[in-house]
Amino acid sequence: MPPANAPSPPGPANSPAPQAPSPVQGGGTNDAIDALDGRLIRLLTEEPRIGVLECSRRLQVARGTVQARLDRLQAKGVIGGFGPEVDPAALGYPVTAFATLEISQGQGADVRAHLARVPEVLELHTITGAGDMMVRIVARSNADLQRVIDRVVGFDGIVRSATAIALENPVPYRILPLVDQAAAE
Predict the structure, then answer these.
(1) What are phi and psi of 123, to 5 degrees?
(2) How far apart are CA 117 and CA 79, in angstroms?
(3) Shortest CA distance to 30 belongs to which of 84, 93, 102, 78?
(4) Residues 79, 70: contact at Cβ < 8 Å?
(5) What is the dihedral of CA 41, 45, 49, 50, to 10 degrees?
(6) Is 73 exposed, middle or buried (0-12, 13-18, 19+ CB in 10 A)?
(7) Which helix (DSSP H) or strand (DSSP E) does residue 42 occupy?
(8) Model confidence over 71-120: pLDDT tens digits?
(9) Is the model's pLDDT at 19 over the cut of 50?
(10) N or C: which end of the chain has fewer CB within 10 A?
(11) What is the dihedral of CA 161, 113, 141, 159, to 10 degrees?
């Protein structure tokens, strides 16, 4: 259970975060965050269970200021949630792979729906280049990866796939360097 003063999540745990317009779409400078927002995001990233009152004490600003900043950052889609980080390897899925998929014209929505039903598909991106979509998948072993791939590509809308197994992750997903840069702009 989160601390009494913890920020409330924006909605259901699996709901997608609203997307903030990119500078290209918005056509302007970076007004997404300022230095205080950056410090608040860093604090919440480093200590996700910290409450609003403790954030205000550490940042030396009023509690209402912290809450207003959190509300604004959530409304703009900068902060998408406060859920736990879950390690697939710790759940028994230590193998990570990336599959590039070529799909039949006009089948995008059906393929997306199919892939959303495969629990081992952690992410799906539409891409440019050699394929149409790229998925990050996990498996229990290299042998189990074949089962996952078969399930992923076992759909009429997928024409061809190419898979690469990740050997290590020397720079795991991170956001704080980008937050620091955006806050400094």
Answers:
(1) -145, 155
(2) 26
(3) 78
(4) yes
(5) -40
(6) buried
(7) helix 35-46
(8) 999 999 999 988 888 999 999 999 999 999 999 999 999 999 999 999 99
(9) no
(10) N
(11) -10
